[in-house]
Amino acid sequence: MGGSWLGRGVDWDWVDSVNGFWSVLLLASCALGAFVVRFINPINCLSNQNKEYGEGVCFTSEDKLFVEGMNPDWHKLVSYHLWVPLILLGQALCFKIPGAIWSASRGVFSININETVACLEKVQLAKEEVRQSTLRDTAVVYSSILRSNRFIQGVFYIFVKGLSLVNLVGQFVFLTVYFSPVLSFKPRPPDIFTSVNPFLSRSVRCRYTVPRLQNTIILETECRLQINEIYEKMFVFLWFWVLFLAVLTSINLLVWLAYLFLPFFRNSRISVHVAAFTGCHPKDPAISRFISSFLGLDGVLMLTLISRNSSEVVAAGLAHSLFRVFREQDQGFCVQGGLSGPSPNHPGGVSLTASPGATSSVPASSTIVYSEGIPMTTLSPCTDTRPEKPLLQENGENGH
User: Fold this and answer.
1) CA–CA distance from 93 to each of 25, 32, 84, 171, 263 (Å)?
2) How far apart are CA 308 and CA 251, in angstroms?
3) In the list 29, 176, 213, 282, which could disulfide-bond 275, CB 3.0-4.6 Å?
């Protein structure tokens, strides 16, 4: 169910969960670890004079460390390790922003799927009358919402996934340019400075002053930033993690574009759900018209996410209830090869009353049958083989 401790809501798929929850948790843990290791022997200087004082000053100052041969304007880059915990927190925030934007849109101009599924799951074990009534009420409310908006939520969902992909590409470029983790696989002496990756230099020199009576002594010593070895391995892992997620999110975005905009992918699951309840063929034109003109992008998105994250039964029940509302509003439904004759509600129409115990299986001719109390135009083989009750009984009358 949505909102679980795994950080996956009903209106997310698992790739959104990896980007918006697990990656945030990973980077926040890295930031915490980067802060903790600062207190575990982060630097080791060779000087024997005021060693502890020198190491403390060299590690915490931005202008004491330098690499021999480095441009003096770049000296502060050697102390970049001081900002690593904040950099990791900033990366975690960038992963969180797309999911936060999507969550903030719930109930504003989109359907709150989490609340809907929570309500429908509670009534799954209730009495049949209560369950059908809840599904019916939900379908009526959703049909009203979908009537005024059939595409905004779907387009916005694609936009949020695009934001996640932009974030991943930006973070990949950032890690590649500024931390160059690939260089860590190339053999190089640790004391040689490279202008490509000055941020994680390991062998550095420190120039600091020591007070002596009324004078100060300038000392210079060679130090090894052991903390940068840990940071370098951390950023190597993050580089591969971001690369993996960028590829995964790109594929996921293409799949969702296909689900929302290509009829073959868009209709497959929903048409099977509707056909399971109605007896229609999944490729019936009425079902295709129901998906394209009634549900739209928003309805397809809603039912797809519910079937993936909650239950196929809940998604199929809601799809069937929505289809029943669609049948009430549409004059041509459940047809195979064209529309049938005029409706009995129109002038010239012929009313056909079902007898007790009769079924709706009819010859392949223009016929009016009653299914669940709703007049339904049908042509064989799209038939509903469930036993039907007389219309008066379905409306609660005693038939006398």
Assistant:
1) 10, 14, 14, 12, 37
2) 17
3) 282
Q: Which of 189, 180, 191, 199 is nearest to 78 (CA)?
A: 199
Q: How many Cβ atoms are within 10 Å of 301's Cβ, its own excluded?
A: 26
Q: Where are the alpha helices (DSSP H) in the chain?
A: 14-17, 23-36, 51-60, 84-104, 113-122, 128-148, 152-178, 226-261, 263-278, 285-289, 296-309, 312-329, 391-394
The CA distance from 309 to 291, in Å, is 20
The residues near 311 (Cβ < 8 Å, ≥ 6 apart) are 121, 124
Mean pLDDT over each residue of the chain, to the nearest integer: 74
Q: With contact defined as beta carbons under 8 Å apart, do 9 and 110 qualify?
A: no
- Read off the pTM: 0.70
Structure-block tokens of residue 260: 């929302």
Give residues with Cβ within 8 angstroms of 165, minimum separation 6: 246, 249, 250, 253
Output the pLDDT for position 395: 38
Whether residue 98 contacts residue 252, with contact meaning beta carbons closer than 8 Å, is answered with: no
Which of 330, 336, 320 shows the shortest CA–CA distance to 372? 320
Among 192, 181, 191, 189, smallest CA distance to 223 is for 191
Q: In the numeric block, which tokens belong to residue 35?
A: 């802060």
Calpha distance 341→271 (Å, rounded)? 25
Task: For helices 152-178 and 226-261, give the axis angle rounded to 10 degrees.
Answer: 150
Q: Assign 211 to helix, strand or coil.
A: strand
CA 64 to chain centre: 46
Shortest CA distance to 176 belongs to which of 201, 199, 204, 203? 199
Q: Within the chain, what is the greatest distance between any pair of CA atoms?
A: 116
- Whether the link from the prior residue into 72 is cis, omega within 30° of 0, is no
Query: For residue 312, which of 277, 284, 288 has the smallest C-alpha distance?
Result: 277
